[in-house]
Write a structure and sequence with these properties.
By secondary structure, the protein is α/β, with parallel strands linked by helices. It contains 12 helices and 10 strands. It has a 7-stranded mixed sheet with strand order 1-8-7-6-5-2-3, with helices on both faces. Strands 4-10-9 form a 3-stranded antiparallel sheet, with no helix packed on it.
Amino acid sequence: MEKVFTSKLESFLNAVAEKFQLYVPAKTDDHYTYNVYDPSGKKPVELNDIRTCTPIKEFLFPIRELAATYPKEFKPDDIKPFAVFGLKECDLRSIEILDKVFAEEDFEDQLYLNRRNNMFIISSDCNEPGESCFCNIFGGKGFAESGFDLNVSKIKDGFIIEAGSSKGNSFLMEHSDIFGEIPDALLSERDANRAAVQARLEEKNDHLKFDVTIKQIVEDGCDSDVFDREAKNCVECQACTRVCPTCHCFYLYDMQKEDYFAKMKMWDSCMRLSYATVAGGENPNKVLGDRMKHRLLHKFVHFHDRYGLDMCVGCGRCVDADAGGMDIRDILKKLKD
């Protein structure tokens, strides 16, 4: 695939914004969230050094959406092509996981596919992994090698942009007038930057390298009292599942409109007390520690059994967001110990 160079990020983003509704990272305090791109230049865009707080699932699997109507004919909203800039390698792996759930041949979710097929993915290298980042424990890296349409790497004098799909390649060819060729020295600089970031990740998370798989750790720890002890710190804020880019539980509820009924689809959380409640009021997970155990079993055992993947990408969002100070890394380490 083609690689090009640009010294100005704005010219590249303006070209993208001509074709797509473009979302870009914006910094608030120490965190990044997504805003619609402003081509006027009043809000300068900076390349996010770390993944955003906003999980990518918000673009593909909204918090709340209309799923069906009766007797009125249901017509899903038209999804216009859109682009998201600044996604990290952990985000791309989370999309792979969501695709397994919502785009399987026998269980295709057309609402998800409508967004997925209209999404133009622009990833970027991580420059400063955060304290909560532990993607390398799950085979992740500070840079993407696949799963993107375009990838942006920051170097001293500009940016290297690499195509990762036919859509990305076509974009670079269509806008060849705003890009230049890449000297070998710049590629070497990019590779050195990537190696340095990866070395920091490996060093920071060295204490999380286990001699057995995390799947086995969680399976072997099913009867451990670690879950109940750790649950004492949990305030049931559900933030861990809300910001997780791979948690995908939802529930359906009916609403009565003036002349029809609407069925809404809304995010759910396995950490919520009534999540597992069934008809008659019975609940197999009334105890908070059991709900925490269920969450980890789903991520590292049940999902792995079905798809061969861990349902965690090590992005660390749950660590940053949890109001009770819960840390999934500590839980795994205590289960192993």
